[in-house]
Design goal:
alpha/beta; 11-stranded mixed sheet; binds glutamine; about 500 residues; Amidase signature (AS) enzymes
Length: about 500
């Protein structure tokens, strides 16, 4: 059985020629074929490209100069530009967009020989927490197909959880890697802002967007993240700090590691079952040598209002480029230029995207700018300082990833506030530019729950090591969802 193996095991099997990358790739392509109609995890699959990459990987493997990801089948969230392969961003606006270049992340993963199976579904322009905002249909959660997989990287999360790929890229503007990872029972890491290049990653809110890794385990995430990260001269916000070899630092001792538990994240409002599961997980970390410390994040309640001003404001300017002229959807027979703009945008953007453009434009308009955007920027600074205060006392911070487990499809679509509350524990991390990770920490009925770990800037290695060591003692991350592409090769 190849289906539940880690990147390390698969890489080992590939090097020993127990299996070829072409065979492995065909296995995943056929799993996608079987399950994608039901799950809608992939928007597109490019069999020819995948087999060509796998064939190339097999050549590299036979020369003996393979890397950990050489020949490993992965998927990309469909907002990373892929040369010659449609990149839709989950929108009608870009349904026919075929990029002329690869995102840096895609290029880097190609360079180490990873095989791209296809592009995964997402909320339109990464706006959402449930993956119900995709033009290409809602993604289903492999643990319960009546439930959402989380968003916006729900396609990537569902694909990994269902065994349709080994690992996948995601992006996280306010929780879009961590929340779907939690809902689908996998591990996901959003690194420090600037760790991963944003070139070719279609922009939602540029000061918050960050690419990251989604896989079953922290160890697999470490392999993916170290290959994706690094300075990019073409992205002025990317960091030139050297990338640490995360996969080699997973066993770094966590004895004495101080983990802060913010009072605001474990308040009386937290669901009792979620609290119990998180406490069990934290006790396991304590058994491994971590020290739990009660802390305060006094500005925690500012996260939602601040994020929902800043993200739509940036989105409204980023999305102004879709005007029906340059690229993207163009309406039929426009009467004049104004009609061209209006109808192209009205016809091709979905409801949530339109709502955010309106909110963002309002917040930035003269007369309101100081009251909304200016205030939000000041409050953002307070949130960042709050974390720095906490990191004087502790090495990492722990909390829930989301308030509860995956919810039923359609149950929150008519209540935007309930939907926005899904991000209550994840947004502040982006506002402060910090790295955050979610790992499986038990089950709520039959649905997975995630524990979130937050680190200080560039502390990805410590986050991954803590999660890895937890995963050496627990098996939540190896449990199989009911919809899982099993089968021997
Ligand atoms: N759910 C949040 C939003 O809708 C975060 C999305 C994201 O991280 N891309 O904006």
């Amino acid at each position: 059985m190849m289906d539940m193996q880690s990147i390390k095991q698969l890489s080992d099997a590939l090097s020993k020629k127990q299996i070829s990358s072409v065979e492995l790739t065909r296995h995943f392509l056929s799993s996608i074929e079987t399950h994608n109609d039901q799950l809608k995890a992939f928007i597109s699959v490019d069999e020819d490209r995948a087999i060509a990459q796998a064939t190339q990987a097999d050549k590299t493997l036979s020369k003996g100069n393979a890397r950990a990801l050489t020949g490993i089948p992965i998927a990309h969230k469909d907002l990373f530009c892929t040369e010659g392969l449609a990149t839709t961003c989950g929108s009608k606006m870009l349904a026919n967009f075929v990029p002329p270049y690869d995102a840096t992340v895609v290029q880097k993963l190609d360079e180490v020989g990873a095989v791209t199976l296809g592009k995964t579904n997402l909320d339109e322009f990464a706006m959402g927490s449930s993956n119900e905002n995709s033009y290409f249909g809602a993604v289903r959660n492999p643990w319960d197909t009546n439930c959402v997989p989380g968003g916006s990287s729900g396609g990537s999360a569902a694909a990994v959880a269902a065994g349709l790929c080994v690992a996948a890229t995601g992006t996280d503007t306010g929780g879009s890697i961590r929340q779907p990872a939690a809902f689908c029972g996998i591990t996901g890491i959003k690194p420090t802002y600037g760790r991963v290049s944003r070139l070719g990653m279609i922009a939602y809110a540029s000061s918050l967007d960050q690419g990251g890794a989604m896989a079953r385990s922290a160890e697999d995430c470490a392999f993916l993240l170290e290959a994706m990260s690094g300075f990019d001269a073409a992205d002025s916000t990317s960091s030139d700090r050297a990338v640490e070899p995360y996969s080699e630092q997973l066993n770094h001792d966590i004895k004495g590691l101080r983990i802060g538990l913010p009072r605001q994240y474990f308040s009386a409002d937290l669901d009792a079952k979620v609290r119990e599961l998180l406490h069990n997980a934290l006790h396991e970390l304590e058994r491994l040598g971590a020290v739990l410390v009660d802390i305060e994040l006094k500005q925690a309640e500012l996260a939602i209002p601040v994020y929902y001003i800043i993200a739509p404001a940036e989105a409204s300017t980023n999305l102004s480029r879709y005007d029906g002229v340059r690229y993207g959807y163009r309406c039929e027979a426009p009467a004049d230029l104004h009609d061209l703009y209006t109808r192209s945008r009205s016809e091709a953007f979905g409801e949530e995207v339109k709502k955010r453009i309106l909110v963002g434009t309002y917040a930035l308009s003269s007369g309101y700018y100081d009251a909304y955007y200016g205030q939000a920027q000041k409050a953002r600074r307070l949130i960042a300082e709050d974390f720095q205060q906490a990191f004087k006392q502790v090495d990492l911070i722990a909390g829930p990833t989301a308030p509860g487990p995956a919810f039923a499809l359609g149950s929150k679509t008519s209540d935007p506030v309930a939907m926005y509350l899904e991000d209550i524990y994840t947004l502040a991390v982006n506002l402060a530019g910090l790295p955050g990770l979610s790992m499986p920490a038990g089950f709520y009925d039959h649905r997975p729950i995630g524990l979130q770990l937050i680190g200080n800037h560039f502390d990805e290695s410590r986050l991954l090591a803590a999660a890895h060591q937890y995963q050496t003692q627990t098996d939540w991350h190896t449990r199989k969802a009911p919809v899982f592409a099993g089968g021997a090769l």
